[in-house]
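Cross-check.
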Amino acid sequence: MPSYKKILFPTDYSRSSVTAFEVACGLARDYRAEMVVCHVAPPPIPAVADGMVFDIPTGEEKWMTEKLKAVRPTESGIRVTHRPVRGEAAREILGVAEACRADLIVMGTHGRTGLSRLLLGSVAEAVLRSAKCPVVTVRSFPPEEAEVETKGN
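Predicted model, tokenized:
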């Protein structure tokens, strides 16, 4: 039986992330594991002035950290740390997983298909392909799809 001591939960604050967070919290509770909650923001906007490249300050850092720290389990007793990072989502998630020695990654997936998946890519798929630990993906359905799914059963 697996033993998970550290669970990484990357969030993009979407609906599928909310559902995945519930799963991650349940696993953290059951395994008495620590949770590392991370959010990957896009890289800063570079600017060029007088031949020098620098990042334009957006004031987003404080907001990003505060929003991430608000992602907390409702149950007490689950240890949580927060890791705000910037960069390409899949690459940064894999980097955080390795740096914190995650035993499991639990993340939401949007379930895109067709052209939207081709254009936007799939962060979950990229993480699944390259992670050095198990990955659990959780998809939440839009309300109308969820109704159809439950009515048929």
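Confidence is low (pLDDT under 50) at residues 115-120, 143-153. The helical segments are 15-31, 60-69, 89-99, 114-120, 123-130, 143-151. Passed to J.P. for a second look.
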